[in-house]
UniProtKB/TrEMBL annotation:
<keyword id="KW-1133">Transmembrane helix</keyword>
<protein>
    <recommendedName>
        <fullName>Major facilitator superfamily (MFS) profile domain-containing protein</fullName>
    </recommendedName>
</protein>
<dbReference type="InterPro" id="IPR036259">
    <property type="entry name" value="MFS_trans_sf"/>
</dbReference>
<dbReference type="InterPro" id="IPR050930">
    <property type="entry name" value="MFS_Vesicular_Transporter"/>
</dbReference>
<dbReference type="GO" id="GO:0005886">
    <property type="term" value="C:plasma membrane"/>
</dbReference>
<feature type="transmembrane region" description="Helical">
    <location>
        <begin position="44"/>
        <end position="66"/>
    </location>
</feature>
<dbReference type="InterPro" id="IPR020846">
    <property type="entry name" value="MFS_dom"/>
</dbReference>
<dbReference type="GO" id="GO:0022857">
    <property type="term" value="F:transmembrane transporter activity"/>
</dbReference>
<feature type="domain" description="Major facilitator superfamily (MFS) profile">
    <location>
        <begin position="8"/>
        <end position="81"/>
    </location>
</feature>
<keyword id="KW-0812">Transmembrane</keyword>
<dbReference type="InterPro" id="IPR011701">
    <property type="entry name" value="MFS"/>
</dbReference>
<feature type="transmembrane region" description="Helical">
    <location>
        <begin position="7"/>
        <end position="32"/>
    </location>
</feature>
<keyword id="KW-0472">Membrane</keyword>
<keyword id="KW-0813">Transport</keyword>
<dbReference type="Pfam" id="PF07690">
    <property type="entry name" value="MFS_1"/>
</dbReference>
Length: 81
């Protein structure tokens, strides 16, 4: 039995919306929490920069990997512990 395309698209859109919503809720409070833990402004800046750098590096690598082994297999890979 095949899943209707509309349901698949809806589930993917819901997952993306939830991810972006949670990111939007956490990010504004992250600097406040980091300051309460004693982090300096420079350390907080490095925290946000490290995310951007990791995303910048990982995106083309995972894109090439998806082209090589397939998107479905890449998504199905278990997280590394």
């Amino acid at each position: 039995m095949k899943t209707p395309k509309k349901i698949v698209v809806f589930v993917i859109m819901l997952a993306i919306f939830t991810d972006m919503l949670m990111y939007g809720l956490v990010v504004p409070f992250l600097p406040i929490h980091a300051e309460s833990l004693g982090a300096s402004q420079s350390e907080i800046g490095l925290l946000f920069a490290s995310y951007a750098i990791a995303l910048f590096v990982a995106t083309p690598l995972f894109g090439a990997l998806a082209d090589r082994i397939g998107r479905k297999k890449l998504i199905e890979l278990p997280p590394v512990k």
